[in-house]
Protein: Methyltransferase domain-containing protein
Organism: Curvularia kusanoi
Amino acid sequence: MNISTVNPPPQAQALLSATKKVDTYETTGGLVTAQFAKHNLSIIPPFQDGSIIHDNACGSGTVSRLILSSPSTPSDIKIHATDIDPPFLTTLEHTVKENKWPVSVTNRKSEALDFPDNTFTHSLTNIAIFFTSSAGLDGAKEIYRTLQPGGIAVVNCWAHVTWLLPVKAVHEAIRPGKPFPTPVVAWHDGQHIQKVMRDAGFSEKNMEISKSDAWAVVKRDGLREWAEKSWAYLGGIAGWFEGDEQAWDQAVDKLVELLLIQPGTIVEGDEVKMKASQWVVVAHK
């Protein structure tokens, strides 16, 4: 929870405005969450005719887009894409209409869905379960409730993010004396994500957990832009503070400096590659 009630500085507000927010996300963290989604779809059986799929906490529709762009996906499927963030939903609605996709886009909270019990053959939640209440349990319970017997659920969480420690270090550099919040629950070891799925009703014997890596790859001359967008998204983890507007360039420059020396960063020619890892659980009801 934020420990400050100061509004985001204008630099952050500009990058997170309704017209810019989706692009800001898709060109930073979205570079790796899309890779996670692609990997996770590859480790479940192919979709069958008549599949009813929940793209849960869908964002701008990364999972739906991957499913529908696959030549192996049958035409007789239905996707329900849900989220609570209007800019992302608006973007997805436009894409659905433009492509005439079999996707229904609605504003629904992951831990308070109003779909009937046993609705979906598949429930896919990409880098979102940890945002739901009760440390993820409420979201997991809704996944279990709305999934058909025999259905497949896929959930994942961060295992490692190269740029998180640099964000923390920048916070400490520009906001001395302001504590950086420690997560109430640690997800990084893969234990908690399994626990919430078990507690939601999934049997241990019907769950498999694995780990995979992805890379945010940016041009060296584009790293500062990437860092600025990332700071707009993540600089408020501890809240925004008086003086953040004036310290904006200092914060972004410091973030660039730290990103380049992280163990998870590889610089090859004019490319900078930053590693992120996920834990992914595939569970059968």
In short: The mean pLDDT is 96.
